[in-house]
Structures are given as structure tokens and as C-alpha cells.
Amino acid sequence: MDLSRVAIRESLKPRREPHWQRVHNGCFLGYRPSKRDGPGSWIARAYDPDQSRYKTKSLGDLGDLAPRDRFTAAKAQAEAFAEKVLSGGYSHERIKTVEQACRAYAAKRPEEEARLERLVYRDEIGRIPIDKVRRHHLWEWRKRLEATPARIGIEELSTGEQKARSPATINRDIVPLRAALMKVLAPGAPGTEAAWQEALRPIKNADRQRTLYLDRKQRQDLVNASTCDAQPFIKALCMLPIRPGAMARMAAADFDARTSELTIGKDKSGRARKVLLPETAAKLIAQQSKDKLPNAPLFMRANGARWTKDNWNKPIKAAAVRSGLPEGITAYTLRHSVLTDLALDGAPILMIAQLSDTSVEMIEEHYGHLRQEMAQRALANLSL
Question: Are 206 and 171 in contact (CB under 8 A)?
């Protein structure tokens, strides 16, 4: 039976058992005509080899789509449902809303929980039934996101300063919602209301190259101009390609003085990684972990608390002013400078990506030009 044809669906008689169409092996799409005037309902059916039985999922009537678009949307959802059943993915029976889909995603990516809490759970998008998600819902959510000022530090709150959300920040904020929905929804047919994914496309060229770079002497000047409590934290950022947030979250137990290994547990990828430190960096980290309880912050402020974005920016800016360095220096300037030096020193792209918990593609995009300059100089040395 060809359920893709509107005329055929309209000719079907209402009955309790849906009219089934085989999509592929183990995956079926059903249609149950309405007993009253109006659109019928769609049902997905997929075979679960682990339990040796079929599972079904109601897809609703898709009544907000044009009749010609309903089959395509229902088929995509049925295929996504079958894929999840076959792979042992999330239990669709308990995922009823966008918020629940995001919470299921955040269970395996806890570093995204805070972002989803701010932008999805507190927003009306979170209450939308997962089988009712349409493109206009996501466009409306995106407009609200883009109109929301970016988060600022505590030092700016007193002035009432607000900062517009940058394209790069918008792209980062979109990622967890898009990833969560991709776990439970198949992309809809392009150009239709079912194409929810179209509203979550990233802004192109949003991640501009970071042009502010501090060489080793400038970074040393910054460290020397830092306050006593901030100096170890800033020095570590000047020596290691670790994100400031991940650096601040590390505990004393994350450093093994016997092997000089540092474990970075909570970072962007969500996977722990180990870095074998060189002697100078190992000495700095060993000093910070000495005589501390295992769960104590590796880097402490003067009051014993952890460093956060709200309080590490101010001492970095103050140290930059005291040392006569350019305006606009942030904690990420230090990370960019370290990554730049690694590229200039000839470190392999894959190694830089692994050390910094960044994709090879991202390293290539932002630092690949440095390798090209090195290659040009190497070729110049071959001139006769």
C-alpha cells in the first residue's frame, strides 16, 4: 500500500488496526483514518531484536502540515524510531517533550546541563511535545535566543552593562538542543514545517580567528604582574592548552606527582583525558596540589574558593594594564597563544587537537595557516 498518495489515504476506511506500509526490514509506517472529518493518525512500528517483539510509537496526526507533506514527515520519524529501537537508544516511551529529550541528552553530556537549563528548560520550547515539534517552533526559539543578552561577569553587573550575543555564542548555544533533538527526531523534508533542523543551522564564519596573540615574553610579563592568588592560575593558562573552565574545575587529586600526569575530567567533549606534563608545568601543578585534600580545588582564590569566569577576568585585565599589554586580553587569549606556539613549533595537528580537546578540523581551520608558513620557510631553505 502506498500511503504517500493523499488520494489513497482518503479512500481508506476507518478501522482499529492501522493500514501498514513497509518502510524497510523491521520498520513499518501505519496510518489510521479518522472516523470524523479531519486528518488521520500515524503510527511507527519497529522490531526490537533484544526483546523479540515489535514496538510502536504514536506520531500524531501531523495536522499542522500540508496533506502532501505528512507522509514524508511521518516516514522520517518512523525511520528514526526504528533506528533507536535497533541501537538500544533512548526510551521513546518516556520522552514526551523537548525538555525530556534534552535531559536524556544531558545525562551523557553533563557539561551541557547548565546551558540547557538557561535556554531550554526555562523557555516555552521545553514544553512542546516531541512529536509536535515544527520548524516555526525552533525559529521562534532562535529569535528569543538571539535577542537575549550574553552572560556577563559580576564586575559588569553593577554598571547595568549588557552585551549582545555574538554569532559564535549563538552557534554554541544551538549545539546541545540540535544534538538532543537529533537523538529522537529525524530531519524533516527540506522546505516543509517538518524541517525543524533548518532553524538550528549554525551561522557561517561566526568563529573568527583570534588575532590577539601574546608571545612567551608577554605571557611572562602578564604572570609577573598578576596578584599572588591569581598568579598560579594565570601561569598555568599560559603554559597549557586547557580551557579556563576545565582548569578551574580540576581538583588536587587530578595530578599524579609520581608520573607527572594531569587528568582533565570535565571539558567540552565530556571525556576525561590525561596529559603528561613537562618538568616546569609539573612543578607548578605539584606546588598547587601539595598538602590539599583530594577534592580541594587545584587552583584556589585567596578565600579558598574555585576560580570562575565571573572572577578570573578581572585579575587578567588588571595584570594586562599593569604590564602595558594590549587591551582585550582574556583567559582565552592565553589559550590561543599557547595553541599558536604549539603550531609554530611544529607539533602535529592531531596532537594539538588531543591536548586541547578540540577537533582536528577546528585546529586546522584556526591554526593550519601557521603550518603553511612553516612549510614555506622549509621549502625556502632548499633553494640553490
Answer: yes
Q: Are 240 and 275 in contact (CB under 8 A)?
A: yes
Q: Of 230, 227, 226, which Cα lies nearest the Cα of 305?
A: 230
DSSP-derived secondary structure for 338-362:
HHHHHHHTT--HHHHHHHHT--HHH
Residue carrying C-alpha cell 498518495:
5
Grid cell 573568527 in the structure block, residue: 208
Q: Is 37 exposed, middle or buried (0-12, 13-18, 19+ CB in 10 A)?
A: exposed
213: left (phi over 0), alpha (psi -120 to 50) or beta: beta
Q: Which tens digits make up the pLDDT trace of 42-88?
A: 999 998 877 778 889 989 889 888 888 899 999 989 988 888 887 76
Rg (CA), the chain: 27
| Dist. CA 145–CA 139, nearest whole Å | 10
Give, as one character, the DSSP assignment of residue 304: S
Residue-wise pLDDT tens digits, 297-334: 999 999 989 998 878 989 999 999 999 998 889 998 99
